[in-house]
Amino acid sequence: MRVTKNQYSHEFKKQILKECQETGNVALVARRHEIATTTIHTWLKNNDKEVR
């Protein structure tokens, strides 16, 4: 079985990260958009690196 990799736009990622900040709940946002929590945590980690 082959797993496909989803590619999300930069704007979509920004929207998701903003929702995570507003709600304070990554799991809730992940379920709402059907995205793995690990994906969002990776985006958060990468976003922190960009800010520094």
Automatic annotation (TrEMBL):
One Pfam family recorded for the sequence: HTH_Tnp_ISL3
Cross-referenced SUPFAM superfamilies: Homeodomain-like
Transposase IS204/IS1001/IS1096/IS1165 helix-turn-helix domain segment(s): 7-45
Residue stretches in coiled coil: none
Organism placement in taxonomy: Bacteria, Bacillati, Bacillota, Clostridia, Eubacteriales
The protein, known as: Transposase
Gene3D superfamilies: Homeodomain-like (1.10.10.60)
